Amino acid sequence: MKRMIAMLLAMLLAMSCWALAEEKETDRGVIIFPESESDDSNGPQKLPPESKPFVPGDVQRTILGSDDRVRVGDTWQYPFCSIAYIVGKYECGCRWYSSGFMVTRDTLMTAAHCLVCQEHNKWATNMTFYFGYISDQSYLYRYNSEWTAYVGTLFPDGYTSVNDWGYVHFNTNVGDTTGWFGMRYPNDDDLEAGIYYIAGYRDGQLKYDIGTVRVLDSDRMWIDADILPGNSGCPVFDANNYAVGLFTTYYDNANSGFRLSSKTHNKLVADGLL
């Protein structure tokens, strides 16, 4: 009888050790840092052709509503299903939440600072990307496999909104399920003449607002819309689902974002993502 109890205890111990091993997460991400921190945004830019949005089959475009910030009722409808709720874990052990959006079949765009813990200056090693997120048990698509990120800055002197952008490349064609945004590169006048939607996750809820933008410089813009922490990396896009930028920074009296341009497009091309 004692022998049988000992065997049972040994089996239970082995099972518990296996469970702990299963719960231990391994690093899944690789971050490719820029070769230099030089700002090459000065001077005229030759803008690349626009890329077009992609809508998955049998999915209808969602007509966005009023000018007030509202919660998205159906996160599985395009273009909202192309926006990611990102759960990030970092070298320091911290966990942060942010947003991103698909721009090609297998590539997501977000803010570079979403890939680093601002408190400890430690980079992300493990990130899970939810699309059409409702809860941890209910979502359209979850990506939690290997990824490679390409960032516009290392933040060598602390946080700056300059070059605060990056791409995350997946090893699966996530966009075939979620769809993706087109990319448009308007000049200063056309950019300021537009009306844009800003949609991102906070506390697991996807909300959007509508507003205008003002040019800050060749890379950045002020955003006249309600945006909160957690929305970092979310798209700024027009009624035809073309992204013109992404949200990066909030202040007490203003919000700012990074403009899409030849710089961001050429990075996609240079790294073989487009």
Keywords:
Thrombin, subunit H, alpha+beta, six-stranded antiparallel beta barrel, nine-stranded mixed β-sheet
Short characterization:
The protein is an alpha+beta fold. 15% of the residues lie in helices and 34% in strands. The protein has one domain (68-270): Beta Barrel (Thrombin, subunit H), CATH 2.40.10.
Question: What does this entry look like structurally?
Answer:
By secondary structure, the chain is an alpha+beta fold. It has helices at residues 2-23, 175-178, 188-193, 262-270, and strands at 29-32, 70-71, 83-90, 95-102, 107-110, 116-117, 122-131, 141-143, 147-151, 166-170, 182-183, 196-202, 205-215, 220-224, 235-237, 242-250, 255-259. The N and C termini lie far apart (67 Å). It is globular. The protein has a single domain (68-270), classed as Thrombin, subunit H (Beta Barrel). It has four helices and 17 strands.
